[in-house]
Amino acid sequence: MSFSVGIVGLPNVGKSTLFKALTSQQVDIADYPFTTIKPNIGTVKVPDKRLEEVANIIKPEKIVPTIIEFVDIAGLVKGAHKGEGLGNQFLAQIRECDAIVQVIDGFREKSNPKEEMETVRTELELKDLESEGKDNLLSKKPVVYLVNSPAQKTKNVEQICSAFPVPYLVMDLKLEAEISELSEEEKSELNMKPQLDQLILACYNILDLITFYTVAGFKEVRAWTIEKGALAPEAGGRVHSDFKEKFIKAEVIPWKTLIEAATWKEAKENGLIKTVSKEYAVQDGDVIEFKV
Length: 292
Prior knowledge:
Elements: E1 4-8, H1 15-23, E2 40-45, H2 49-58, E3 62-64, E4 67-72, H3 87-95, E5 99-105, H4 113-130, E6 143-148, H5 154-161, E7 168-171, H6 173-180, H7 184-190, H8 196-206, E8 209-214, E9 220-227, H9 232-239, H10 241-245, E10 249-254, H11 255-261, H12 264-269, E11 274-276, E12 286-291
Parallel strand pairs: 1-4, 1-5, 3-9, 5-6, 6-7, 8-12
Antiparallel strand pairs: 2-4, 8-9, 10-11, 10-12
């Protein structure tokens, strides 16, 4: 199971450009409304230096990062809750996502970031009023706001956005898409550093997610995503259904403690790896071996 984030916003604000930059997938990008009719879906690695450090200790044959899913959804227009534009399809796709990134136009001289933010929020709230149930409300999904602005306008855009009642990010999505096509060597030579990691981590954080690691017989180090507060059997279920259903115990060591111990053997001999029961709440950065 992966967690998904819907990329939303008014037409032609840079949603598909963001999706392309995040996923390196070729998508239709054009300056007319509703270029995206069917949602584009892609998975993105969650940046995690801890995974690399744990792998340096274990020295596995394989390293597998955890992922988060992004969904590029058709542009919203006023009246979407009544079916205007691709309203019904747009809103149904958002309902399937766990969180939202709203892309806001910062390119046009007369752009109004606050008005765009309120337009989308109003449409979500109006659609919720039509819902018979109160579960999975569109307007209650966590949101990251991303202002798409050229680098030279960043300061002006930040002045405009200072009235936002919520945190936001500002980046040039066209530039980010261009950087995503470069090799690591080219990025280094040109001294171009992508900013997309900030967005990925912001989405991860608003979903209240944490990461734990497994070492799979020391042949594979893998990162896994789970909601904060989850107990050990649930974490085990992410790895394999047997680890939840037949859970007996697990051996756990915080990633930083493992790094300080230098080897798994040293950590074991010094009593740094503890045995936990079904009631143990997994902590961010735990390295876990499940026992069934």
